[in-house]
Design brief:
535 residues; mainly alpha; 2 domains; two-stranded antiparallel ribbon; 6 strands; disordered N terminus; disordered C terminus; hexosyltransferase activity
């Protein structure tokens, strides 16, 4: 960051009331966290600093560099789980002795899935290759690849690349390592590329708030979970889908959301917020093009597997129907602290927890209905990112599974929906720290790990923080003058055809306050003290 006149330590906040809303937001001028971060490099940007004229270090490139640093830290965090050792028999094996994956908190699904999904074997193909689990017991079950199509193919391609590397290493062309180590590193490389795409898309979507993408780049959740599973693929597709919608390319947006849904289903949830906002603005034809493109893309990617490998393709849906509540779900929290077993206990093979599935689905649909009402009754049309965050958060809070890496889904949406740096960084730190008690809970009390109650206590804290984020977003929806994005006259950077659109369908709301469309001078002054100022 530059100081005033390239040397003077001038840090006074410029008068920004009369500046155009399309200009770039400078976080260091009003956000206390950003201001504190800049102190080691000269303090906040100076009043007369030349902005946007450096030939190379653009804000986007700085954000991408920060993302590379964050992803590098994430790789080193997992590196302890790809260490090798020589056994007494002279064999080289992966060093997961004495619960190393939990004690070092480096666990990643990528490593065990290499063998569990039969990716280490030659001649296998996802959804065609099956194996028997718990053979010879009452829990015997035929299993297939358990991931959606694109995630499964992603794993298979990386496994083939790892096999090719291993062959080249045996010929002396490349350095050698255990195939699973090579597989992890190849996977991490492509997941890093996917997260860089996510950062790029958020920066382009945020437009005049481009520096907000730095939160996506250096999020503690990225450091901890970028390589825990394969979710960066879906975040990249979801973020680029929102960017395409923002650029008024509804068909491309639908294609990208369909691609994301073929990796993880959550990008399809965006169609709900877009639908109710298009109803409010009477832009249903545009929404129909997006929804049609998303459905067509998802069907085109899945149809060959549905037709020719149907049993293997259905494994993902079967498993999610039959699996019980995970340790990190609110249902398990309720069951543990109250002793109530009404959500269905342990089930045998092929059985589904019917009550749990019904309760989870009903709660999610009820919250979606409430979000739709908010979208149609608010004094001013909510922003797309606000509703998308609410819907995805509602799914995670009501779902029977909240795998730790699912929190990555919220990161780009949160930055676009509520760009308040201290608040978001606080949530990300809390969510990332849940990883530590999770690992020591999995280690087991007998191995000096943590009791389940300690872990579930941190889960409750995480969920409460996410609920508070939702409450704050709802508050800004009903009080748009306090919206950090809209306070300077911007409508909706993610809105696309909705940006600046007239409200045509608005539900009546009891106690509606007048004057909600435009912020007053007092509101603007108050909001500027809590948000980033415009350069």
């Amino acid at each position: 960051m530059s100081s005033d006149s390239y040397g003077s330590q001038q840090t006074s906040t410029p008068d920004t009331a009369s500046l155009d809303a399309s200009q770039r937001v400078i976080p260091s001028w009003s956000d206390p966290l950003a201001e504190a971060v800049t102190r080691p490099v000269g303090g906040p940007l100076g009043r007369h600093a030349a902005v946007g004229r450096h030939w190379f270090w653009t804000p986007l490139r700085v954000c991408l560099l920060l993302a590379v640093l964050g992803l590098t830290a994430g790789w080193f965090g997992k590196a302890a789980c790809i260490q090798q050792y020589v056994t007494e028999q002279g064999d080289i094996e992966l060093d997961w002795r004495s619960g190393r994956q939990y004690v070092a908190m480096c666990y990643s699904d990528i490593v065990p899935l290499y063998t569990a999904e039969r990716l280490d074997e030659d001649g296998t193909f996802p959804y065609a290759t099956s194996w028997v689990e718990n053979e010879g017991t009452e829990y015997e079950q035929v299993r297939y690849m358990e991931y959606p199509v694109l995630s499964g193919l992603f794993q298979w391609v990386n496994a083939k690349l790892a096999h090719g590397w291993d062959d080249a290493a045996e010929s002396g062309w490349l350095p050698g390592a255990l195939p699973v180590v090579v597989y992890f590193n190849i996977t991490a490389f492509f997941l890093s590329a996917a997260w860089l795409i996510t950062v790029w898309a958020v920066a382009r979507t945020a437009r005049h708030r481009i520096w907000d993408a730095a939160l996506v780049a250096v999020s503690p959740l990225v450091v901890v979970h970028a390589f825990t599973n394969f979710d960066a693929l879906a975040t990249a597709a979801a973020a680029t889908g929102l960017l395409a919608w923002a650029r008024r390319k509804p068909v491309l947006a639908g294609v990208l959301l369909g691609v994301g849904a073929a990796a993880k289903l959550y990008p399809l949830f965006f169609l709900g917020p877009l639908l109710v906002l298009c109803v409010r603005a009477q832009r249903l034809k545009v929404w129909a093009r997006t929804a049609g493109a998303a459905a067509t893309t998802w069907a085109a990617l899945n149809l060959p597997f549905m037709v020719f490998l149907r049993e293997g393709w259905a494994e993902f849906f079967r498993l999610n129907t039959q699996r019980d509540m995970d340790p990190d779900s609110l249902y398990n929290v309720i069951s543990y602290f109250t002793g109530w077993q009404g959500f269905d206990g342990p089930l045998g093979p092929g059985e589904s927890p019917a009550i749990l599935n019904a309760v989870s689905g009903a709660l999610f649909l009820a919250l979606c209905g409430g979000i739709a009402y908010v979208a149609l009754s608010a004094p001013r049309r909510p922003r797309v990112a606000q509703l998308c965050f609410l819907v995805v958060a509602a799914f995670l809070l009501t779902n029977k599974v909240w795998s730790p890496q699912y929190s990555l889904w919220l990161v780009p949406l949160a930055v676009l929906a509520i760009p308040r740096w201290r608040l978001l960084l606080g949530w990300m730190v809390v969510d990332a720290l849940v990883w530590a008690p999770r690992m020591f809970y999995y280690l087991g009390v007998s191995n000096k790990g943590l009791p389940e109650g300690w872990f579930l206590g941190t889960v409750v804290v995480r969920d409460v923080v996410v609920v508070l984020l939702c409450v704050l977003i709802l508050r800004e929806i009903y009080r748009p003058a306090q919206d950090a994005v809209r306070v300077h006259g911007v409508d909706d950077p993610v809105g696309g055809v909705l940006d600046g659109a007239e409200d045509r369908v608005v539900l009546p709301r009891r106690g509606r306050r007048g004057g909600g469309e435009q912020p007053t001078s007092a509101d603007q002054s108050r909001a500027r003290r809590n948000s980033m100022s415009v350069a």
